[in-house]
Structure formats: structure tokens, C-alpha cells
Amino acid sequence: MAPRWKGKGAEGKALADPISKIISQLQSSLILSKSQGLLSGSSVILEADTEQTDFLNRACFGRPIITAEKDKQWFQFTLEEAFYLCYSIKCITIVGENNCIRSDEEVWKYMKSKKESFPEFFKAYCHLRMKNWVVRSGSQYGVDFVAYRHHPALVHSEYAVLVLSEGDDSANGRLRVWSDIHCTIRLCGSVAKTLLILTVNKNGHRAISPSCLESYSVKEHTVTRWSPEQCREDQPIVENRTNG
């Protein structure tokens, strides 16, 4: 499926301002200001200045929280987004109660306690982000993530993403029967997205610490709806006759 750009000039704007460049600028800005994210339930809250707000919005990290402050902006990150900034590109630290800095292992355990499937979801999220895809929640489409080639203001999302765990039937229950697969593919087709299944294999490693992520592997599978009209070959009609 080709990218569906939003309006004339959108593709040119995306090429001139690649996501990899924006994230690099964001990373430098957050490191320079020694930014800290605060654990808050199943999310992380971070205070950003004007420059960081611009970078976060352009790179599509977090959701802005409306406040009365003009020179400061607060962002709310999902667990995957926060751990990506903290662990993968190391540009923020995460604190808990009393502003005590949490280690990567402590943050990992906290996030696992809030979301049992966090290790698999984070590996999938990281897999897409490392390819410079913009990754957002896919809940409105009944999937785990949606993936964009660039900022959603410039292009429609191309992939509806489901995250599965290799050999874990309980985690893969959504696609165990044909009717689930058929419904998901129909939904993706109706919103012009390709279903991308990311299967995470732990390769025998337990999710004790974030270091296990290096041993995890990800398999990509795209699933599309088969159309008989597009695949059928014209065959000559053979008339059966009996001699009599």
C-alpha cells in the first residue's frame, strides 16, 4: 500500500524534516535539561519547555495536558513511550514518589506490574520506532498500535498493528478463530490500513529485567483480504456431452 499523503506538498515536508532528525533534536534537548518523568498510575508525566514541546509534538510522543501555564507544558506518556525515552534513547530519567530516581530495573518491574504484556508490547513498539515509524495507540481501530510513515498531520497511518507472543495461547486469543481474523481484516480494509502482526519470541528468556530485550526477536507478518475477483483466471467453459 502506497503512502496516502494529506494534501499537496505533504510528502515534500516529510522528506525535508525526517522523523530521525526530529528525535535526535528531542533527545539532545531533553538530555541538556536533565528532564525527569514522573510515574503516575499507568502513565508517565513530564514537564516540557517551549522547544521540547515542539519536538515532542513533531515526533509524536505523548499527549499534551492542558494547563494555565504559558511557558510550560505537561505531557502524558504511555508506558511504552516513556520507557523508550528512558531506556532506549536515554534522554530522560524517571522518578517515583518523593522525586526519587528509579533505576531501569525498577521502572521495568513497575511497568510490568501495571501491564502484564508490557515486555512484548515494548519490544514491538521499540521495533517500529527504531525503523523511524511514528507509533500511536490503535484502540480506536481495535488493534494495539497504528504506524505512520511521518506525522499524522501529513500522512494517514499505513499499518494497524497487533502484538502477539510466540507460543502464548492466552495472549494470542484474539486470532485463534477464523471469525476474529476475518473481522479484523475487514475493519482494517474499511479504514485503508494493512494489518501488521508482530510476533514477539522471548527465545526462552524470562522478562526479569530489561536486558532480556536483547534476546527477544520480532517476526513481521502482513495480512490482507483475499479477493477472488482479483485472483481468478478466466477459464474456458467445458461442456460435458454424452454420446447417445
Automatic annotation (TrEMBL):
Q: Which residues form the tRNA intron endonuclease N-terminal domain?
A: 36-108
Q: Which Pfam families match?
A: tRNA_int_endo, tRNA_int_endo_N
InterPro entries xref list:
tRNA_endonuc-like_dom_sf, tRNA_intron_Endo_cat-like_sf, tRNA_intron_Endonuc_cat-like, tRNA_intron_Endonuc_N, tRNA_splic
Gene Ontology MF: a single term:
tRNA-intron lyase activity
Gene Ontology cellular-component terms for this entry are: nucleus
Enumerate the spans annotated as tRNA intron endonuclease catalytic domain.
Answer: 122-204
The UniProt record lists the EC number as: 4.6.1.16
Highest taxon above the source species: Eukaryota
* Catalysed reaction, written as an equation: pretRNA = a 3'-half-tRNA molecule with a 5'-OH end + a 5'-half-tRNA molecule with a 2',3'-cyclic phosphate end + an intron with a 2',3'-cyclic phosphate and a 5'-hydroxyl terminus
**Which family does the entry's similarity section mention?**
Belongs to the tRNA-intron endonuclease family.
Name used for this protein in its record: tRNA-intron lyase
